[in-house]
Amino acid sequence: MGRTTLTTEEILRLRGQKNIVSPTKPYAFLVEPELAEYGNVVDVATIFLTNRECPYRCLMCDLWKNTLDVPVRDGDIVEQMRYALERMPDAKRLKLYNSGNFFDAKAIPRRDRIEIATLCRRFETVVVENHPSLCNQQCIEFKDRLDGKLEIAMGLETVHPEVLPLLNKQMTLDGFRHATEFLCVNDISVRAFVLLKPPYLNEREGIEWAVKSVEFAVGCGVSCVAVIPTRPGNGAIELLAERGDYSPPQLRSLESVLEQSLAGPKTYRVFADLWDAEKFSSCNECMAARIERIGQMNLTQTVPSPVQCHCGEVEPV
């Protein structure tokens, strides 16, 4: 099967313009409900930190749009956190997403981590994102500064043996497994990001490999998985779409992955990312009901009665 493969240079060349962002303000922040591991729904604050661009140029990533071309200065991240925390309602948990890797010293200055940890003390859990290759002693040192629990989110993306190398992730499944085992042994929880229908897969394959990826993550010790529909918008994905190597997943496919992942007894949580979910629906009549149902599955980890509709979004093909 002939697949379009893109180098880092080609991925960069296909990009559009970045958004204008400030090094002293987060580019977004919000509070939303999430089911905790002990079964209660809690409010979770998320701060989208403005940071330097991630050095890993993944094929499908569009997070570079809200990044800087230069590193932040010492103190900038702390100022961003203060700005957001002063303006958000109280929450039990905090996610710090920096469009890259929290433990990249060129992204989050080491000397800021003490003050960052101090600002995190009111939260029972703090979630940061990181590449598996950067999971090391720094993670343990930061965990020890927190009063609450540390959770590290890593992009697994897919376990498809041919597709993963084409994503320019610079990661192997063994690398992901070893990072997860290292974190778990050191009492750090792990959250994984799994892509629904990355490039090069059709609809049915997209569902199948997303479910397999969830299973692999959980087998490694991951306690929470977020399934994310692969979206267009970064230039490279549009080129792949033109060449027949990508099409957006259906909303029903996201629903199906969640249904299958929640089918049996669980020691983990699986969430579906519903950002812009309406763009993946081909039926206006059942779209709202499907999104509501997926949201219900997110918050209860149970599978409610299916949505009944005469449309084609009954069984993905």
UniProtKB/TrEMBL annotation:
GO molecular-function term, one example from the UniProt record: iron-sulfur cluster binding
Limits of the Elp3/MiaA/NifB-like radical SAM core domain: 44-260
SUPFAM superfamilies on file: Radical SAM enzymes
InterPro entries in UniProt: Elp3/MiaA/NifB-like_rSAM (IPR006638), RaSEA (IPR005909), rSAM_sf (IPR058240)
Domain of life: Bacteria
This protein's name: Elp3/MiaA/NifB-like radical SAM core domain-containing protein
UniProt source species: Aporhodopirellula rubra
